[in-house]
Amino acid sequence: MKGLVAYYTKYGNGKIISEAIARGLEESGNEMTVVSLPVKDVSGDYDFVVVSSPTRFGKMLGPVKKFIRKNLGGAAWRGKPFVAVGTGLRPAGEDGAPQETDESGGPCGPAESAEQVYSELESAGLKPAAPPQKFFVSGMKGPLWEGEPERALGLGREVGRELAGGS
């Protein structure tokens, strides 16, 4: 199958996660294209999509929302599988995670963008291949928590097997 991984990142954490997911999908026999948002246009010549957004003020970022609405809302994408990914902080108190703030002093959300990306993709007519996927950073700018890139690679492998019919 031919897949697209589209991500937006400000500090590079989303790129690391997206590339690891793509590697896992490739290991499962899929042909992958990875793009950093924003992009002008993306054709519907893919069998599935992975979309990743960082979390700011508990929300996905505008370039991701715009990408979904402009590129993935058409008939060419309807019914195709998707995986929604979000990066952000662990919820306060989970594994000792403190409540962090972003550069304007507002709270950083605990990877809540994953649910919003999921909702937007489902509303656009795509079908989930996995529940919303959250990957965690240790601070506003990162780095990623230990083991997160490996977890992303495993997700890519697992989803790749599922898309191939569970083999």
Topology, please?
Layout: E1 2-7, H1 13-27, E2 31-36, E3 48-54, H2 62-71, E4 81-89, H3 113-123, E5 127-128, E6 133-137, H4 148-163
Parallel strand pairs: 1-2, 1-3, 3-4, 4-5, 4-6
Helix pairs in contact: 1-4
Largest sheet: 6 strands, parallel
**CA-atom Rg in angstroms:** 15 Å
Total tally of structural domains: 1
* Ends distance: 14 Å
Beta-strand residue fraction: 15-25%
The count of β-strands is: 6
SSE topology string? EHEEHEHEEH
CATH fold-level assignment: Rossmann fold
**Unreliable sequence segments:** 96-107
Anisotropy-based shape: globular
CATH architecture: 3-Layer(aba) Sandwich
Count of helical regions: 4
**Overall pLDDT, averaged?**
89
Report the CATH C-level class: Alpha Beta
- What name goes with the CATH superfamily? Flavodoxin domain
- Percent helix, as a range, is 25-40%
Oligomer kind? single chain
Structural class computed from helices and strand pairing: alpha/beta
What this model shows, in words?
This protein is of the alpha/beta class and 167 residues long. The protein has a single domain (2-163), classed as Flavodoxin domain (Rossmann fold, 3-Layer(aba) Sandwich). Helix content is 31%, strand content 21%. The protein contains four helices and six strands, in the order βαββαβαββα. Strands 1, 2, 3, 4, 5 and 6 form a six-stranded parallel beta sheet that branches. Helix 1 links the parallel strand 1 (2-7) and strand 2. The radius of gyration is 15 Å and the shape is globular.
